[in-house]
Fold NitT/TauT family transport system permease protein.
Amino acid sequence: MPDSLPASPSAMPPARPPAGGAAGRTVAAQPVRFRGGGFTVKRHGWAALAAFAALLAVWEGVSRLGLASPLFLPPPSAVGRALAGMVADGSLWLNLKASLARIAVGWVLGTLGGMLVGFAMGIFSTARAVGVPLVSAFFPIPKIALLPLFILWFGIGEPSKFATIGFGVFFPTVIATYSAIDSVPRNLIRMAQSFGLPWGAILRSIVLPGALPGILAGFRITASIALILVVAAEMIGAEYGIGAFVLMAGNLMQTDTLLAGVLVLSLMGLAIGTVLSLLERRLLNWR
C-alpha cells in the first residue's frame, strides 16, 4: 500500500499565471496616481468674484423687494451712487490720502520695532525671559483706550494717531516674529553649527528664511489691526480720514454715504491683502 495518495484535482491550489503572461502585463500597465502634491494651493480667482456677485445680488434683491428699509439698509446701487459722488467732489481722495498716510507711518514704526524685539526674543534667552512676560502683560490692553493718553503726550495731531497704530501693531509683530523664529527646525541649526557655519550666516541662511512665512502671516494680521485702529483714532479726533468721514455720515443719517465709506475701507483691506500676497509669492517662491 503506498505511503500517500495523489491529491484530487479539486484540492490542488490554482495554477499561477506566468510572470510574463497577459495578467502580469495588465497589472504593470496600470497608471499609478500621483500622491505627492503636498497640499498645493490652486488659484480660483473666479470663486471670489462669484461670491461677491451673489452677495450683492441678494442685497439688492432684499432692498428692491422692500424687505429692508432703504434708511437702514440702502441697496448697493445707492451706495454706488454715493461712492461716485465722493469721487466726483474729491472728498474720497482727500480722506483716503489722510488714512493711508497714517496707516503707512504707524504700521512701519510698529512693524520695525516689533521685528527687532521679536528677533531678540527668538534668539537670545535673556531677551526671551524678559520679553515674554512684558508682552503678555501689555498685549491685551485695548490700544484705542490709550489714545487719550497719547493725545496728552503727543498732542491732538498726527503723532498721537501714529503712536496708537504703532503700539497696536507692535505686540502682534513681536509675537509673530518670536513664534516664527522659535518654530525653525533645530536640527537644521545644529547641522549648520556642526559644519562650522558662522553665527551670522546661520541667521541669514537658515533662521530668516525658515521664519519668513510666519512673519509674513503676522503682517496680514497687523495690517488689519492698523486699519481698524486708524478708523477708531480718526473718529475720536481728526478732520479728514475715512473714519472721520464715516462718523460724519452716521451723524447726518446718510446711510448710503456711510456704507460707501465702509466699502472704501473694505477695498483698502482687499488692496493691502493683495499686496501682501504678491510679497509672499515673491519672497517665498522657494517653497
Q: What stands out?
A: The mean pLDDT is 83. The chain has one domain: 75-283.
